[in-house]
Amino acid sequence: MRGSGRELSALEIEDLAAGAWILGAGGGGNPYHALLNLRAETARGFRAEVIPAAALGDEDLVAVVSTMGAPLVGEERLPDPEVAARPVRILAERLGRDFAAVMSLEIGGANALQSFMVAARTGLPVVDADCMGRAFPEAQMTTFAIAGLRNYPFCLADIRDNVVIVERAASWQWQERLGRVAVTEVGSIAATAKAPRTGREIKDHAVLGSVSRAIRIGAARRRAKAAGSDPVAAVLASESGLRLFTGKVSDIARRTTRGFLRGKARISGLGPDRGASLELHFQNEFAAAFRDGRPVATTPEILCVVESATGEALGTEVIAYGQRVEVIALDVPFALKTPPALELVGPRAFGFDLDFRSLFPAS
């Protein structure tokens, strides 16, 4: 399998961070501190190798990694490659098998870089895939859960050398509940290695090419900024996305509870949207948008708030009063829009009594 991938340049890692922040839908954690880690690892000789899922053998084991917890806490407790790698090493010891590669649980936010931090300390290649196509707040909100794959064993580790292994969980929802209790007790943030996946499961059920998509989005934004053109328009053109609203953040309310960041942001319209308002509700990620009280967009499609001038994403933990922003929508794979998928990632999974209506009906 080695030699079947390609080495990312330093610029591509920068683009990956920027694109993943947009794909995070406001969640997944701010990638800035993880990016600083990767810059330091690269300076020490780390070379990030990305492989396509097709390069995996069917029986190869892949470590699926993430940081679990509230994004606001991640602004205070900074990521550490050694902590990120710890649950992978412990799970490999528990399984009695080495992993062939590592993959991020989600391509959104800092979690998109988690696999690269693990790779920097383990030497494993990173699979060009994830199992969300964006960021979601809960463990059962994955293509693997939608497919009914096994959800254990699962390992969680924190900075104090606390380690929790969940040997079995009755369902994906129980895995989420057990993990959430543990992560809340260790300070609302921890590194995780989810249930290991085989190469065959990755090829059949993961969202393929998601690392490449994040790099493409970041590169589109970067090139537009360098040319003095509209970076938001460049991202939308790259991904056939939609501009939903233009305005200024006029109110923000958020709280950290049970390991989640919950709240809502109100945006007062400017330009073509002057006189209107948009309210965005979030649970780590933006889940639903209401224009003047009427629902206009919901999960699982990606709702993202970006700075109007720079196109940089704003996470739910850093969005602030007075910021001039654009609210955009990007499409997700069809696998997230099927009836079984919507039970796990649709608006009702977030407490909204709404039917999902796609903004991208032709997808």
Write a brief caption for the model:
The protein is of the alpha+beta class and 363 residues long. Helix content is 32%, strand content 27%.
What would your notes on this structure say?
- The chain has 363 residues and is an alpha+beta fold.
- It has two domains: 6-210, CV3147-like domain (CV3147-like fold); 229-350, CV3147-like, CATH 2.40.390.
- 32% of the residues lie in helices and 27% in strands.
- The protein has eleven helices and 18 strands.
- The chain has helices spanning 10-23, 32-43, 71-74, 81-95, 111-122, 143-146, 172-185, 199-205, 210-227, 231-239, 339-345; strands at 6-7, 49-51, 61-69, 101-104, 126-127, 129-130, 154-157, 163-166, 189-193, 197-198, 207-208, 242-257, 260-269, 277-283, 285-291, 294-298, 302-307, 324-330.
- The chain has a seven-stranded antiparallel β-sheet with strand order 16-15-14-13-12-18-17. Strands 3, 4, 7, 8, 9 and 10 form a six-stranded mixed β-sheet that branches.
- Strand 12 and strand 13 (260-269) form a beta hairpin.
- Helix 1 packs antiparallel against helix 2.
- The longest helix is centred in the middle third of the chain and has 18 residues, at 210-227.
- The chain starts with 5 loop residues before the first strand and ends in an 18-residue tail after the last helix.
- The mean pLDDT is 93.
Features:
globular; six-stranded mixed β-sheet; 363 residues; seven-stranded antiparallel β-sheet; alpha+beta; 27% strand
Question: What secondary-structure arrangement, pairings included, does this model have?
Answer:
Elements: E1 6-7, H1 10-23, H2 32-43, E2 49-51, E3 61-69, H3 71-74, H4 81-95, E4 101-104, H5 111-122, E5 126-127, E6 129-130, H6 143-146, E7 154-157, E8 163-166, H7 172-185, E9 189-193, E10 197-198, H8 199-205, E11 207-208, H9 210-227, H10 231-239, E12 242-257, E13 260-269, E14 277-283, E15 285-291, E16 294-298, E17 302-307, E18 324-330, H11 339-345
Parallel strand pairs: 2-5, 3-4
Antiparallel strand pairs: 1-2, 3-9, 3-10, 6-11, 7-8, 7-9, 12-13, 12-18, 13-14, 14-15, 15-16, 17-18
